[in-house]
Design the sequence.
């Protein structure tokens, strides 16, 4: 099929190009395989029950990342608590209420811009605005608010896409039955768009779990575990390092590579699960659209 | 809203208005955020330009923030960011484009089912893991290379393999998924008739791809390239771990500082004017990113026109 009709033979340039194309595609797969294998081989030995459930302490002689796991979880929950309503709300406004005009293009411009800003600048801004101006200092809350701004475009855009796929007949049907706009949104549009919204949310969680630069100067690096419930809630206002931050510190200033690779294994597993979850949801969304 | 009564949701006329107002607030958060970020970066970044002097700060090459007579020249840092980004794009884009062509034009369904998810996973791996692997795998290899190349040199400062080259390789890998997925969807959007016409005229498959399909997807591919530039410019943690970290002229085997890594490594302890200068570094990075963003939005608008 590939050959020219006028020439009976293959063009040598074509063969070279085919070779290059296959090589590049192979390169991506090989890179991924190398990363996964190397991290697994170096790191799997450090991961055990104690590693996941204790805190590194010279006094007790334990090596563990439980504090960092908890910090990561808390940052994810706090960030999503803020970002999900705002992101979905913005998408609903843009898609259902706003008429095309200056304000809409301004909001869309702002969302695009926000998604292009690198995480280190979010971190810089977060430490200045949330940390200093609002006086939250180095805390999980500062980190979460910073990340909220960072994942906002992701959630807004995914929700918008999902809302666009809800057929207009749903809206007309609801209006025809006399339902108000907000009522329609609440009972018909948002449930229909739910798989899309969830996909956005899962992708956002993936970004939060993998984020490091934006957290270094906002959430800090503490890794203790709270002992009581009140201390657990107080933790929101205290510094806490996530898994990525601990990996960075272990690999650089602490020079503890077995911990670094152990965390890398945990992070890869989480990322893999998130990736699979988002895919499963997207597939469901796709099936729904077709039928 | 219509004022019918006795129908679900309509007891709540005020709820409708409240919802609308709240949703509007959600929508303007993005505008507020961009304005606040811009304002803060300018407000915190400009004073140092004034105190140190624009020429000395932006074009000075000596960075000695904690010396008795401190010098704050960030010219090499800016140059390193530009060089690192340009080189990584130079390496990453051809590989990415060829992979995109593989996924859309060459591959069988079975092979695509391996390559596509691999690319998506590469995009999802946290940057600290790229940094960690760069430290463990790339730096030792580059150190060996360094020892061979500079065997007789008396002036070369050994970096242990933590140099610009390492950062470029890591960045090239990190921008690959962006370039691949954006280019691939651009190529997929090229109408089938174009390919069919070219093949019917007797062009080979490769001639069709490079003479017809890829040029037709030009603006989409360019979008991918610009997105890659933005990503490379803004990456901080991974390259902070592999690039050494001395302020140097960006030569392949020099240990270098980028705009981003400058912030990562010194924000933690900097005080006074040193801290202010770091904000200026952030401002410079922000301005670069804004240029990239504006190019991107223009490209997207043009792409949108092509479709319509």
Sequence:
């Amino acid at each position: 099929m590939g050959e020219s009709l006028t020439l009976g033979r293959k063009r040598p340039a074509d063969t070279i190009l085919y070779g290059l194309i296959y090589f590049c595609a192979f390169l991506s797969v090989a890179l991924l395989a190398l990363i996964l294998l190397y991290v697994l081989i170096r790191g799997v030995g450090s991961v055990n029950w104690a590693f996941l459930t204790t805190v590194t302490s010279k006094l007790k002689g334990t090596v563990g990342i439980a504090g960092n796991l908890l910090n990561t979880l808390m940052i994810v929950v706090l960030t999503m608590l803020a970002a999900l309503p705002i992101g979905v709300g913005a998408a609903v406004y843009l898609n259902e209420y706003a008429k095309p005009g200056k304000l809409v293009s301004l909001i869309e411009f702002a969302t695009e811009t926000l998604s292009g800003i690198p995480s280190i600048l979010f971190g810089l801004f977060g430490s200045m605005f949330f940390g200093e101006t609002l006086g939250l200092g180095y805390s999980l809350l500062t980190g979460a608010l910073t990340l909220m701004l960072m994942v906002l475009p992701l959630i807004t855009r995914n929700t918008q896409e999902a809302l666009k796929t809800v057929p207009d007949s749903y809206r007309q049907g609801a209006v025809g039955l006399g339902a108000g706009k907000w009522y329609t949104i609440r009972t018909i549009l948002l449930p229909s768009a739910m798989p899309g919204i969830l996909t956005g949310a899962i992708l956002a969680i993936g970004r939060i779990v993998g984020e490091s630069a934006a957290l270094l100067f906002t959430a800090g690096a503490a890794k203790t575990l709270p002992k009581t419930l009140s201390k657990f809630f107080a933790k929101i206002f205290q510094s806490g390092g996530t898994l990525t931050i601990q990996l960075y510190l272990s690999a650089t200033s602490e020079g503890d590579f077995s911990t670094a690779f152990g965390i890398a294994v945990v992070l890869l597993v989480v990322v893999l699960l998130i990736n699979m979850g988002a895919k499963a949801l997207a597939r469901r969304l796709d099936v729904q659209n077709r039928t | 809203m219509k004022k019918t009564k006795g129908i679900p949701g309509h007891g709540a006329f005020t709820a409708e208005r409240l919802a609308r107002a709240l949703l509007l607030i959600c929508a303007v958060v993005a505008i507020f955020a961009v304005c606040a970020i811009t304002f803060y970066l300018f407000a915190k970044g400009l004073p140092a330009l004034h105190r140190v002097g624009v020429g000395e700060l932006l074009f000075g090459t000596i960075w000695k923030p904690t010396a008795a007579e401190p010098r704050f020249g960030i010219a090499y840092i800016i140059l390193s960011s530009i060089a690192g980004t340009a080189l990584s794009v130079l390496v990453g884009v051809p590989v990415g484009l060829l992979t995109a062509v593989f996924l859309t034009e060459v591959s069988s369904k079975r092979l695509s089912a391996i390559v596509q998810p691999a690319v998506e996973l590469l995009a999802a791996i946290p940057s600290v893991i790229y940094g960690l692997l760069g430290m463990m795998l790339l730096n030792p290899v580059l150190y060996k290379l360094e020892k061979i190349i500079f065997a007789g040199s008396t002036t070369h400062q050994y970096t242990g393999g933590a140099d610009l080259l390492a950062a470029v390789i890591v960045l090239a890998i990190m921008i690959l998924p962006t370039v691949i997925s954006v280019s691939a969807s651009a190529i997929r959007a090229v109408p089938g008739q174009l390919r069919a016409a070219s093949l019917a005229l007797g062009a080979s498959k490769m001639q069709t791809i490079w003479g017809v399909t890829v040029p037709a997807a030009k603006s989409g591919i360019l979008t991918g390239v610009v997105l890659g530039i933005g990503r490379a410019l803004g990456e901080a943690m991974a390259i902070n771990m592999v690039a050494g970290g001395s302020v140097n002229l960006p030569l392949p085997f020099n240990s270098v500082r980028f705009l981003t890594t400058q912030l990562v490594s010194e924000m933690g302890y900097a005080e006074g004017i040193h801290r202010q200068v770091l904000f200026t570094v952030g401002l410079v990075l922000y301005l670069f990113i804004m240029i990239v963003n504006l190019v991107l939005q223009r490209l997207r608008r043009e792409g949108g026109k092509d479709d319509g």
About this structure: Residues 1-6 of chain B have pLDDT under 50 and may be disordered. The first strand of chain B starts at residue 63 and ends at 64. The two ends of chain B are 33 Å apart (CA to CA).
